[in-house]
Design a protein that fits this description.
By secondary structure, the chain is of the alpha/beta class. It has 3 domains: 4-181, HUPs (Rossmann fold, 3-Layer(aba) Sandwich), CATH 3.40.50.620; 212-269, Adenine nucleotide alpha hydrolases-like domains (SH3 type barrels, Roll); 272-350, Elongation Factor Tu (Ef-tu), domain 3 (Beta Barrel), CATH 2.40.30.10. The protein is 25% helix and 30% strand. The chain has a 6-stranded antiparallel beta barrel. It has a 5-stranded parallel β-sheet with strand order 3-2-1-4-7, with helices on both faces. It has a 4-stranded mixed β-sheet with strand order 9-8-11-10, with no helix packed on it. Strand 10 and strand 11 (262-267) form a beta hairpin. Helix 1 packs parallel to helix 2, helix 1 (13-24) crosses helix 6 (171-181) and helix 3 (71-87) runs antiparallel to helix 4. The longest helix has 20 residues, at 94-113. The chain starts with a strand and ends with a strand.
Length: 351
């Protein structure tokens, strides 16, 4: 009897190809669309349109299609967390929280309760099973699109029940498969929006819960350059949205001063942007935990960053990372993911 697979079917081509490949491999495939957020019409939220696209794909593949309303779960596990962190001038990483707490927790639990064997998504990563029944999370074959960083919060149960069927296809080939299969959304563009707000403007979205508080934008000599409206919205290394077009060189956010309500900016050459070490707290281990420190590893402090050589040491309850080369714009409360080759072995919050 074929395994029952519940596919998280969005409107995108990756999840459509995921469903197509699984059906081609004779799995018993069912598609679910997760409703994460519905906005008023004036916000131009595309969720209702996306549902229709996903439904069209499921009909074309002749597989059952259901929608599941996860709005309350998103609000509790992702949105409220995001609002509270922004209020403290901390820039969260909702994509990682979304994957570990909703897509591979709430969604997975619902699937297992409904007697599905596994869930499948169109994520760009690979899962393998090693010795001792340890599941490994590995980089995707296409390094330019690898999403293992966003999956750094997954655990062994979640990996054991998940499938990433497009793991061995580079992105151009995924699109080719969609065209060859005649999928209705084969030429639809990829989304560049974070998982829970879809195409809603972030500043407008945050203003629903966080009242704007104007303050000064200053350089590192404390000279006032301009006025900001949403201090909580700026992130370290941000350039867009500063409206400092008259500066002779591009300027970037280097610090945020919560007490003074000031955003500090300077050029890329400012050494406040660079450091060769950071401290990790709340380390999360993907599989094995009995590592011997110090360790020579590769790591990333942001999505799509090239692998960085580092040394990881453990002191008491914290971990210290020392980089071979200084890093640009290390941001507190973001995630640092550690790799042993292509194997993502642990991740932690940057302190």
């Amino acid at each position: 009897m074929p395994k029952k697979i519940l596919v998280w079917l969005s409107w995108g081509v990756d999840s459509a190809v995921t469903a197509y490949l699984l059906k081609k491999q004779w799995y018993d495939v069912t598609a679910w669309f997760m409703i994460n957020y519905l906005a008023p019409e004036w916000e131009k939220c595309s969720t209702l349109e996306d549902i229709e696209v996903a439904k069209e794909v499921a009909k074309y593949l002749d597989i059952p299609f259901f929608t599941f309303d996860f709005r309350s779960e998103y609000e509790e596990k992702v949105l409220n967390y995001m609002y509270e962190w922004y209020k403290k001038w901390i820039t969260p990483n909702p994509d990682i929280m979304c994957n570990s707490e909703v897509k591979f927790k709430v969604f997975l639990d619902e699937a297992l309760e409904a007697w599905f064997d596994m869930v499948a998504t169109g994520h760009y990563a690979k899962i393998t099973k090693g010795s001792g029944d340890i599941f490994h999370l590995k980089k995707w074959v296409d390094q330019n699109k690898d999403q293992s960083y966003f999956l750094a919060g997954l655990n062994q149960k979640q990996l054991s029940k998940a499938l990433f069927p497009i793991w061995d296809l580079e992105k151009p080939r995924v699109r080719e498969v969609a065209l060859e299969a005649g999928l209705p959304n084969a030429m639809r563009k990829d989304s560049q929006w974070i998982c829970f707000v879809w195409k809603v403007n972030m500043a407008d979205f945050l203003e629903k819960k966080i009242k704007p508080k104007p303050g000064n934008i200053v350089d590192t000599n404390w000279k006032i350059l301009w006025i900001h409206k949403w201090s909580f919205y700026y992130t370290i290394w941000q350039r867009k949205g500063l409206d400092l077009w008259w500066q002779p060189e591009p300027v970037f956010v280097v610090k945020k001063d919560l007490e003074k309500n000031e955003v500090v900016v300077w050029t890329e050459k400012d050494m406040d942007l660079y450091d060769d070490k950071l401290t990790i707290k709340n380390m999360h281990f993907i599989g094995k935990t009995d590592f011997k420190f110090p360790m020579k590893l590769k790591c990333k402090i942001r999505y799509r960053q090239a692998d960085q050589d580092c040394s990881l040491t453990k002191t008491w309850e914290k971990y210290e990372v020392i980089f071979n080369e200084k890093q640009r714009a290390i941001a507190s409360w973001q995630i640092c993911a550690f790799y042993d080759g292509d194997d993502l072995i642990m991740s932690g919050v940057i302190e």
